[in-house]
Amino acid sequence: MAESTVRIGLVLPDVLGTYGDSGNAVVLRQRLRWRGVAADVVEVHYGDAVPDCLDVYLLGGGEDEAQALAAGYLREHPGLQRAAARGAVVFGVCAGLQVLGTSFVAGDGRRHDGLGLLDAVTEPGRRRAVGETVVETGAGPLTGFENHLGVTTVGPGSSPLGRVRAGTGNGDGTDGAVTGHVLATYLHGPALARNPALADLLIGWVIGAAPPDLPLPEVEDLRRERLRAARAGARR
Ligand code: GLN
């Protein structure tokens, strides 16, 4: 439970910032503030110390080379792993998912060690998965945009986040991986802007209680429209 200001770590946005996933930090901060909880975003850039005292850590997507750089840096500066070990919330998207896993093979054909916070191994797939995606989860249906070559196998130490109804996700009918308070998905969007229930799941973990409802009709309308479009696209 965060005591006063919730500190949201945006991890290496200069390296894992290609796909707009930094928006996830803005969404978390705003949904906390709307509920009267003070929240700040702490950007941790390449070359900075990686603090182990933050409440949430967010990792976005990036190219293979960038994610190999990020994984190496975070392994050398293990503040995030220390924080995860004491129960801090970690959310990863795409390359973020792959980096949080045990290992991934990058475009250079080399296998790189991940942070090992998720039991997930990533290999190059046969073709790039690009497009709108729908994933059924315990937090309801999630929508997002995927753009990746990697296919991910989740081992017994993690559970998949959900089942893919449209798109590719991990490549075996599931998407993402979860272990404790470490959760990752292939969904860009940013995922938390498109899926408020997922944002609130993370917020609930941070504040240690289910957050009060936050009715936002415009967001709900947009969400219904996105789900309709993604499902219609999947049927074509
Ligand atoms: N480089 C990774 C892949 O192509 C992740 C891409 C991404 O983050 N969108 O699989």
Automatic annotation (TrEMBL):
Its EC number is 6.3.5.13, 3.5.1.2. Pathway: Cell wall biogenesis; peptidoglycan biosynthesis. It catalyses: L-glutamine + H2O = L-glutamate + NH4(+); beta-D-GlcNAc-(1->4)-Mur2Ac(oyl-L-Ala-gamma-D-Glu-L-Lys-D-Ala-D-Ala)-di-trans,octa-cis-undecaprenyl diphosphate + L-glutamine + ATP + H2O = beta-D-GlcNAc-(1->4)-Mur2Ac(oyl-L-Ala-D-isoglutaminyl-L-Lys-D-Ala-D-Ala)-di-trans,octa-cis-undecaprenyl diphosphate + L-glutamate + ADP + phosphate + H(+). Keywords: Cell shape, Cell wall biogenesis/degradation, Glutamine amidotransferase, Hydrolase, Ligase, Peptidoglycan synthesis. InterPro entries: Class_I_gatase-like (IPR029062), CobQ_GATase1 (IPR033949), GATase_3 (IPR011698), Lipid_II_synth_GatD (IPR043702). Substrate binds at R128. Signal peptide: none annotated. The active site is at C94, H188. Residues 7-195 form the CobB/CobQ-like glutamine amidotransferase domain. It holds the Pfam family GATase_3. The lipid II isoglutaminyl synthase complex catalyzes the formation of alpha-D-isoglutamine in the cell wall lipid II stem peptide. The GatD subunit catalyzes the hydrolysis of glutamine to glutamate and ammonia. The resulting ammonia molecule is channeled to the active site of MurT. Belongs to the CobB/CobQ family. GatD subfamily. HAMAP family: Lipid_II_synth_GatD (MF_02213). PANTHER family: DETHIOBIOTIN SYNTHETASE, LIPID II ISOGLUTAMINYL SYNTHASE (GLUTAMINE-HYDROLYZING) SUBUNIT GATD. Forms a heterodimer with MurT. This is Lipid II isoglutaminyl synthase (glutamine-hydrolyzing) subunit GatD. It comes from Amycolatopsis thermophila.
